[in-house]
Amino acid sequence: MIAAPHGGFIGPVKRSVTIAGHATSVSLEPVFWAALERAAVAHALPLSALVAHVDALRIAQDEPPNLASALRSYLADNPEHFATNMRSGRISVDSESHSQ
Asked: What is the pTM of this model?
């Protein structure tokens, strides 16, 4: 059975991160922000540093995607950063917005 995500469908939230000393706005859905925060903790990095690492990998590509797409792709390739609700098997969402 297909069901709506826990917490419902929530659109992108714009947050500002600092990359190479410059503030950059990134719009991602809260589920991706939460996963990025978990990834940063797992790598013992501030969120901005993790985003900067992904950005460096992104711009090294022949045809780099936008930063939001690169971050989603990074997370899709590293699904362990999503918190799984074990009873339902669905990804849980922390709908609170944080700024970094």
From this structure: 0.78
